[in-house]
Amino acid sequence: MLKIVVDAMGGDNAPAEIVKGAVQALDARKDFKLILTGDENFVKPELEKYKYDTSRVELVHCTEVITNDDVPTSAVRGKKDSSLVVGMRMLKEDEEVGGFVSAGSTGAVLTGGIMLVGRIKGVLRPALCPALPNVRGTQTLLCDCGANAECKPAYLQQFAIMASAYAKAAFGVENPRVGLLTNGTEEHKGDTLHQEAHQLLKTCEGIDFAGNIEGRDIMYGDVDVAVSDGFSGNVALKAIEGCGKTVSAVLKKEFTSSFGAKLHYLFAKKQLSGLQNMLDYSRFGGSVFLGLKKVVVKSHGSSKAKSICASVAQAVDAYRNNLIGNISELLEKTQISGEENA
Amino acid sequence: MLKIVVDAMGGDNAPAEIVKGAVQALDARKDFKLILTGDENFVKPELEKYKYDTSRVELVHCTEVITNDDVPTSAVRGKKDSSLVVGMRMLKEDEEVGGFVSAGSTGAVLTGGIMLVGRIKGVLRPALCPALPNVRGTQTLLCDCGANAECKPAYLQQFAIMASAYAKAAFGVENPRVGLLTNGTEEHKGDTLHQEAHQLLKTCEGIDFAGNIEGRDIMYGDVDVAVSDGFSGNVALKAIEGCGKTVSAVLKKEFTSSFGAKLHYLFAKKQLSGLQNMLDYSRFGGSVFLGLKKVVVKSHGSSKAKSICASVAQAVDAYRNNLIGNISELLEKTQISGEENA
Question: I need a surface site. Which of A242, B27, B186, B339 has the fewest CB within 10 A?
Fold first, then answer.
């Protein structure tokens, strides 16, 4: 049976919320076994809070934890008994393990992914790819959103290919439309990197390139994939996150400013929850780290149970829908040199 | 008396909304004269719709218009009788003219600003600087947000200096806090450009550098100035704009989905307008083009009267608060080579 490993010690709310979310995922998807990696002194008491099918859950004890203060490379090398390293090793070595989920240090997940799990043949740079809500009620993939601060045009071309494969595998989009995130829609817009990437994407077989898009288009939903360098993709992702949180804060302030306002809230509650739910992209899970030999999902550092549950379901679906195979196949088709490793 | 020139033909809603907004500004600020540049066959009938002090308004007839389809450089050189070129020439040549406002082609405003108005001595690259609302109820300046897609570290340092001078002049912030927009708060984050810019900012006299900030911090209001390269600044600005519009669209959908929902809207109307007003940054006017010898305000292409009125008031205030003098002074203090023109 398919196994999914969850790093029970990673994230601001570990292990309590991680364990809670992972157990919830057992209900959401019936076709996998859960492996939790972490210190049993902390994880076991959390597990004992819930009722679940014990035959579907395994706890692998490990003594170390990688934190945000650790330097990723030395932590992945040095902390061999950490929940992250132990989990990723299982992902690499155990054929039945199809996916790994962590809300821990982004740097460590990226480094561990490349060092321990390894890249698909031909992949120049793996990339983080979250799904964002859009006004159409579907989701837009943003790739890369932070794994690669410095990019070359060929990386961006591969991000387009990998995210297209993901849109197909995860959401069943037949011909995902791909936009290149720049500072204007005209073809000549952007810096040299994006101008050159535009030319590569224009002639790239196997993807449906819709041209340049702007920051606002990410949430308008006209494209299924927004391709960006990891620097500006990260800025865009967090700008949207900040705007969403600001909206929530302002609404809260407005609707608690007086007794009358609180009363009005009761009337508007249902509609406002509709908005909150739309803005809450934790329901989509985390960012898939595309380009690795196996499925790795990086959940937000502040993930609560709901988000972890979604991330585990996401890992199950990505595995079941053959994400890795789809990426390999599309990469081969598009004939990007697999040798170039720059 | 101070004169402000408004390009009556620039923008999606020209000349109707431009003229309307400019006339409204006559009420908002009593201490200036308005000069409108544009084709009198179109502008005069618009002007005649309103009552205003005719001694404070002058219409300068010109026969040409620069559109978004024009190539900026050749348009600024070739269309000598366009509302933009005529207006910018007046700004340069007439000592009484203190500011220029246009909602026309961004490229033409930038090119015209540099070619016709000219840079302050020592300025490497002028930069677009809009004010965004933040959750604290104040505003955060984002500089550069699109004038320079390719940047060098020294440009970013100057953006910090110029925007600090603007925060002082426009909003009376005594010691504006400056953050560098990157993909993480740690000092080593970002690409080479931002890592080098961080080092320059850290040791730069005359500004209060708070370190790296992320996209989400733009709206949290912990800094008064967010410094960015024009590429990712533009992506961030438009991502926030898109998120705001998405929120409005979702709220509209939620509150019109049924008769009951429409009824609920009546109760929540006041609070929701509070949110809409907060997100509507057209109330702050346009983006000031910092680094020129005189005040140039670029209003959003889709500006309506309200935004034009705010932009004109913004130009008046920037002039009155000696924005240009403050920038020159701060640049001299910080001893960035005025000769380097790279």
Answer: B339
How far does the CA of residue B242 sit from the closest CA of chain A (Å)? 4
Beta strands in B56-190 (DSSP E): 57-61, 97-102, 127-129, 131-133, 139-143, 177-181
Cα B73 to the center of its chain, rounded Å: 21
Amino acid A336: pLDDT: 55
d(CA B58, CA B77): 25
| SS3 at position A211 | strand
> Tokens 């690795």 correspond to what residue?
A292
CA A251 to chain CA centroid, Å, is: 28
- Measured between beta carbons, which residues in chain B are less than 8 angstroms from residue A146? 183-184
As a whole number of angstroms, the distance between CA A134 and CA B297 comes to 32
Cα–Cα distances (Å) from B173 to A57, B99, B127, B274, B321, in that order, read 57, 22, 20, 25, 12
pLDDT digits (tens, 9 = 90+) for A150-202: 999 999 999 999 999 999 998 899 999 999 999 998 888 899 999 999 999 99
Which member of B149, B194, B257 has the closest CB to residue A183? B149
Is the pLDDT at B337 greater than 70, yes or no?
no
| Beta carbons of B268 and A272 less than 8 Å apart | yes
Q: Which residues of A touch B184 (CB under 8 A)?
A: 146, 234
Helix (H) or strand (E) holding A38: strand A33-38
A36 touches A6 (CB < 8 A): yes
Q: Which residue has the tokens 């090398």?
A: A77
Residue B50, number of CB atoms within 10 A of its CB? 13
Residue A248 has, within 13 A of its CA and on its CB side, a CA count of 15
Q: Helix, strand, coil proportions of chain B in percent (round to 5)?
A: 50, 15, 35
Instruction: Output the six-digit token pair for B337.
Output: 């080579």
Residue with tokens 């990998």: A162
Sequence-distant (≥ 6) Cβ neighbours of residue A268 within 8 angstroms:
A255, B255, B264, B265, B267, B268, B271, B272
CA distance B165 to B168: 5
Least confident of A325-334, B214-223, B289-298: A325-334
Q: Put the strands of the sheet holding A208-213 in their side by side order.
A: A131-133, A139-143, A225-227, A177-181, A208-213
Taking only the tens place, the pLDDT of each residue in B271-301 is 888 888 888 878 888 999 999 999 999 999 9
Torsion angle defined by CA atoms of residues B63, B66, B71 and B76, in that order, rounded to the nearest 10 degrees: 70
> Tokens for A42?
């902390």
| SS3 of residue A83 by DSSP | helix
Closest in B134, B146, B271 to A255, CB measured? B271
Which residues in chain A have their CB less than 8 angstroms from residue B192's CB? 150
Phi, psi dihedrals of residue B303, rounded to the nearest 5°: -55, 135
Q: Are B239 and A218 in contact, with CB atoms under 8 Å apart?
A: yes
CB-CB under 8 Å, A270 with B264:
yes
The number of beta carbons lying within 10 Å of the beta carbon of residue A60 is 16
Least CB–CB distance from B235: residue in A134, A181, A257 = A181
Judge: A239–B245 Cβ closer than 8 Å, yes or no.
no
Phi and psi dihedrals of B62, rounded to 5? -145, 155
What span, in angstroms and rounded, lies between the C-alpha atoms of A309 and A299? 10
pLDDT band with cut points at 50, 70 and 90 for residue B340: very low
